[in-house]
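Q: I'm writing a short explainer about YegS/Rv2252/BmrU family lipid kinase for a general audience and would like to include a description of its predicted shape. Could you first generate the structure from this sequence?
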Amino acid sequence: MLKKGVLLYQGAAGKGGEDLATIVPLLSQRVEELIIKKSSKPGDLNNYIEQLDSTVETLWILGGDGTVHECVQALRDKEQIPPIGILPGGTCNDIARSLNIPMQMDLAVESSLNGEIRYFDLGLLRDRSFQNFAGIGLIAETSTNINPDGKELFGPLSYFASAWRTMKEAKQFTYSLTVDGEKISGEAFMVIVCNGRFVGTRELPFNELKMDDGILDVMVVKATGMQLFMEWYQRSRELEVESDGVEHYRGKEIVIETDDEMDVDMDGELIGKTPLHISLKERHIPFITNSSE
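A: Of course. Here's the predicted structure. Afterward I'll give you a sentence or two in plain language.
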């Protein structure tokens, strides 16, 4: 039995009311004092997290990747970070997928109560951080093109629709990529730096990719790899890395520069512009993972 826990959720995102009806009774059976905080406006989540103290034994976050991103951003510099249980209530829930958390809410709650606490790496970019990925090109354009109303109504299907439209209209850009001092340049449709294993609900084809391995994975999709990438995204074939125009690099310090300023997508949210100077804070954020996986 936990003595004290806090549940945070976005009032404007997802089907929060329905999810709460499932979550609260299950948590209340195992937590003596459960504090529920709803975010109604920008800054609320940050303010709630600033008020957390050492008596909070678990912090539950109900929401999608954007909500988790915002909370981790506020938590990263705290002296004591409570174990975090993600309750996937968003569109893609890629961070939760990377932690092997079930997508069914009651099972996700059970996993958060009985799972294993592990410390995971955190990507750093200027004054921001990302738990899952930071990318430019196709990934950022997909976030730009997604219909907010469709996202609310159709969930992941809205993301797939936006991705498909964007892929068909995508344009190449010139980039310069430096990975631990090694410089690579060329033209591409997308450059993405990954800490997590999933993007747009699709599991990335890097067998060695782990969120606590102290290294970042970089995928570059070039013109000759675009058709392959589209087929992989539709689950019609495997994505063969290091062939067919899809390149893979690994490193701790990543620099991405472009000829023209480009939007940057971090964990599904558009934040900032190129150039990117990315580093890593190893095993810093405590998440509760599904111990049955």
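A: For your explainer, you could say: The first helix runs from residue 16 to 28.
Q: Perfect, that's easy to follow.
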